[in-house]
Amino acid sequence: MALPILTVISALGNQGRGVVSAFLGDKAQLKVHIRALTSNLSSESAQELAKNPNVSVVQVDLASTESIESALQGSTYIFANTAFDPATFMAQGAKATEERESAQIQKITRAASKVATLKHLVWSTLPDAKAASDGRYHIPHFQSKVAADKVVLEAGSGLSDKTTFLRIGVYGSNLLRIPHRPVYSPDTNTHLVQYPVGPDVKFAFIGDEVVNTGIYVRAILEQPEKTIGRVIVGVADNLSCTEWAAIFQKVQDKLGSGSKVTFKECSLAEYEEKWGAIGTEVGLMMTYFNEFGEKSFSTSTWGWPIATAGDLGIEHELRSTEETLLGLEWPAQD
Questions:
Q1: Residue 11 and residue 75 in contact, taking contact as beta carbons nearer than 8 Å
Q2: Which family does it belong to (predicted)?
Q3: N or C: at which end does the chain have fewer Cβ atoms within 10 angstroms?
């Protein structure tokens, strides 16, 4: 008898890879055949994944309704994750990137609503910060994902009684990337972590964005009675930026750099001046966190209940942000 199909959208991205690995692992009680969707079948990662007999790697064009509908047909389970595309952001700006992702999301959700075999859709999303703040915080890479919420909640979509929204917390590994990467001063051998957020304001971190996303999605699909019609906050730990910087200090200690790491709060205007358009994008997110703190990922749930790692019984499986950062390969100081 054929196994039910779990279709993973963006299967080669961080979150998608985690979901694929979780269902190929020994802890998975729900046995599925994985349909891994990617835009590039010729990539080394796609070709390697295709060697697994429990995985079918399928090409999809997320700009094409026909391509998406074909890729989703016959799915019993779907994990959907889309990207706020960096190339579009650099070339055309935040508004165009938001519109691009929103269009993809609308195509995916409407295609999912037509899948007669679908039992459970897990949508990786972010909170509607604009609604939560009465319009004060329009964060494009958050608002682009709200398109899924609207389609799922539409009368007649048939998705509201099949869907779980998974809100993945901040990647601790962001410290590897601009503009999050701590600024190194060789004259003083110091690293500065700086954001427009108070030093003691805590907000959600996912920990290991690959491993932990897989753990969450595995638990969600294996416990539909606890997860359908709910918002899951994907968090391994709630940390302040001071605590985040302290973890990066442990990284420096492990590397033997002798560097001193500090956190300093700045204004949104200062952050934007330093980093330009990407500074506006990240800075708006941080000012939203500054106001809403640990509630940042649990706002605007349209009356859907919140569920946590504790509710799913997975809190002891998750990799912490500290464990994750200490296990990464860090580039040379510059």
A1: no
A2: Belongs to the NmrA-type oxidoreductase family.
A3: N
- Report yes or no: 81 and 145 within 8 Å, Cβ to Cβ: no
169-188 residues labelled b (16+ CB within 10 A) or e (exposed) = bbbbbebeeebbbbebeeee
pLDDT(334) > 60:
no
276 burial level (CB within 10 Å; 0-12, 13-18, 19+): exposed
Residue type, 267: S
Q: Quick one: tokens of 252?
A: 């420096």
Structural domain count of the chain: 1
Contacts of residue 116, defined as CB under 8 A and 6 or more positions apart, other chains included, come to none
Nearest to 4 by CA among 86, 102, 74, 108: 74
Range of the domain at 204: 5-326
| In the chain, % of residues over pLDDT 70 | 99
Q: What is the CATH number of the domain that holds 308?
A: 3.40.50.720
